[in-house]
Amino acid sequence: MKKLLVLLLFFSIMPFSLFACGVEPSPEAPTESENRSEEEKSDPTSDLPAINDVSVPERSGSFKAVVLGDSIARGYGLESPESMRYSALMAESLGAFYETVDISNYGVDGRTGVELLEFLKTDPPKEINDCDCVIISIGGNNILQMLDTAQTAFNALMELDPKAVADYFKYAVAPEGEEKDKLAYACDAISSVFGAVNAAFESETFNSLITDAGKRLEEEIPLIVAEIRKLNPNAKIYFQTVYNPYKGMNVSLKEVDEQLKLDDYGERSVACLNAPIEALSEELGYEVVPVWTEFDESGKDLVNAGISLLPFDISVDPHPNWQGHELIAKIYCDIITEVK
Q: What are phi and psi of 57, to 5 degrees?
């Protein structure tokens, strides 16, 4: 069965979706400075996404950026984060436009908005002082309190019996009779699991936590921006929206009473986080980077989460795969080169 793309943070994010965060520790110092050598820059060919689909002008000047944020920024789950995450891909692509490109990455797994604010107050990256722009990926981990609720839902999903799934498809094509009656249990088994997942995400506790996470982010964004402005009043600030890692992960099966609605829950959750990101941009003078919209509209497999019922396979990891990082890099490069 065709793989369905999926969902909350959420963020940075977590071992599970926007709900959980990566568990690998990351240092509070840049894990890289993405400078391309002159030899590397001399080769114009690249598998990286095309930028703006226009002729590349002669390289000139320099570009310096600082990336702040969570596990998405750090590249959690990639085989080689230092070379495959979107900041590294940006450095590679922007090398066709600038003589020197320097991107310092301070992404940390599980980092929340309040933790980023504390980092900027107590140990700000020195690179911010003279950088051209600051790139922020934050918000998903603000819903860490939802971990118990999300874990309950995902545990229920993981308990879906592969044999019941296989028997369901046998049931769907079996002729009426004794054999079909024996397989009918599969409909109830799948419906029960889907119902348990839905109940967790539809609970009052879950919805309250989503709302609170959005309110906290609304309070934190002005403080984060203010700290960056203290360090560098002239730096351009880019704040990326949170994508829905469970896009396409609604599942409806004939004669199964419950529909699995992870896409719906994911969309509702990220909307609460993206609302303040978008609403405050004009007032605070930062640019919103539409990662949420671009992921929704791409139609590609951009995250690790997904469901395949035949063969049976489920992943709820919300982090971008390499293609996801490629798309994020392209979004930034298009914006940056447009104003060059």
A: -75, 175
* Residue 260: its H or E element: strand 260-261
Using alpha carbons, list the distances in angstroms from residue 158 to 90, 155, 266, 313: 36, 5, 18, 9
- Tens-place pLDDT, residues 176-226: 999 999 999 999 999 999 999 999 999 998 889 889 999 999 999 999 999
Give the global pTM.
Answer: 0.83
Q: Calculate helix-pair angle for 113-122, 204-231, nearest 10 degrees.
A: 20
pLDDT over 70 for what percent of the chain? 81
Question: CB neighbours (10 Å) of residue 179?
Answer: 11
Q: The tokens of 207 are what?
A: 């919805």
Higher-pLDDT residue of 215, 20: 215
pLDDT tens, position by position, 80-120: 999 999 999 999 999 999 999 999 999 999 999 999 999 99
What's the one-letter identity of residue 81?
Answer: P
Identify the CATH number of the domain in which residue 307 sits: 3.40.50.1110
162: three-class secondary structure by DSSP: helix
User: How many Cβ atoms from other residues are within 10 Å of residue 156's Cβ?
Assistant: 18
Which residue range(s) make up the domain with 247?
A: 4-338
Tell me the DSSP string of 106-130: EE-TT--HHHHHHHHHHS--GGGGG
**Residue indicated by tokens 């054999």:** 179
C-alpha distances in Å from residue 220, one per residue of 102, 114, 273: 27, 7, 12
Q: Look at the chain and report how many structural domains it folds into.
A: 1
